[in-house]
Design brief:
7 helices; 2 domains; four-stranded antiparallel beta sheet; alpha+beta; PH-domain like
């Protein structure tokens, strides 16, 4: 069976309306999407199988990450395709094969540009249509019948490592502060040490509630971290250690840090076992 595809289409004109998973669930009246059908040159397009929204509604989330999270492409999105997708501004349409009327074809035109057609992992993906909640965040609707991935491991920041790293930062900042004052001829060189210590201490205490308790969760298919970070295991190209952190580098060139790990080699080894290969 041929894998279904998700088509990413950039619109060359603005739309005052949008249709998303949430809007279809909450709005009593469906918006008039005849103008969208004309822009796509697809009379009879099934609007229940597409999403139309402004890219800016995703907030800080990139469009390619939204697509990966919501639709599960069969293969990792290539760097060139990812760049084209993330360059889309204004309004975008994400539509499944089944939205296109039988016998019709989706092509670029003066009002719409076909950016990419991505094969999907699952044959029946219609129940997993994403939702853009128009508040600057995006997520995937929960399904009661969707299996929940079990956590294989939790990587939680080690508080001792956090404070040890900041102690080293403080020592370096104190030395640099004193050196800077000595170079400019300031007679109160010792005040540079106080300034460096104070700056690092403020940072350490301010971020402790978040960074010293941050956690990454490893599942069979992905790593999920703070601030909605999501890295699929089959997208990881390399793992390496940086100081007390483990750096994740994806095939697309994205980089993530699992910070303040007490045993970095063990973290790398556990991720490699889950990925089923050695990443170096």
């Amino acid at each position: 069976m041929t894998a279904p595809k998700l088509h990413v289409v950039a619109l060359n004109e603005g739309f005052e309306i949008s249709t998303t998973f949430l809007s279809r669930e909450s709005d009593a009246d469906s918006p008039d999407l005849s103008a969208l059908a004309e822009a796509l040159n697809l009379p009879g397009v099934d609007t229940a199988q597409l999403e139309l929204f402004a890219v800016e509604d995703l907030g800080d989330m990139r469009l390619s990450d939204y697509i990966t999270e919501a639709f599960a492409p069969k293969d990792p999105i290539g760097a060139d395709t990812r760049a084209r997708i993330n360059a889309v501004g204004g309004h975008v349409v994400l539509l499944l094969d089944r939205a296109i009327p039988e016998g019709a074809a989706l092509r670029s035109g003066p009002r719409a540009r076909l950016i990419a057609s991505l094969p999907l992992l699952e044959a029946d993906h219609s129940a997993d249509l994403p939702k853009a909640d128009l508040t600057g965040r995006a997520s995937v609707p929960d399904r009661e019948d969707a299996p929940q991935e079990a956590a294989l491991a939790h990587f939680t920041a080690d508080r001792k490592t956090y404070w040890r790293d900041h102690a080293w930062l403080a020592a370096i900042a104190m030395a640099l502060g004193m050196a800077a004052l000595w170079i400019v001829g300031n007679p109160h060189v010792w005040t540079g040490a106080i300034g460096g210590l104070f700056a690092v201490a403020v940072r350490a205490f301010y971020l402790a509630s978040d960074e010293a308790t941050a956690q990454w969760v490893l599942t069979d298919t992905a790593l999920k971290g703070p601030d909605n970070r999501h890295v699929r295991l089959n997208e990881i190209a390399r793992l390496r250690t940086l100081g007390s952190a483990v750096q994740i580098i994806t095939r697309a060139g994205d980089k993530h840090l699992i910070k303040y790990m007490a045993d970095r080699p063990a973290v790398v080894a556990r991720i490699e076992r889950a990925a089923g290969r050695t990443l170096s």
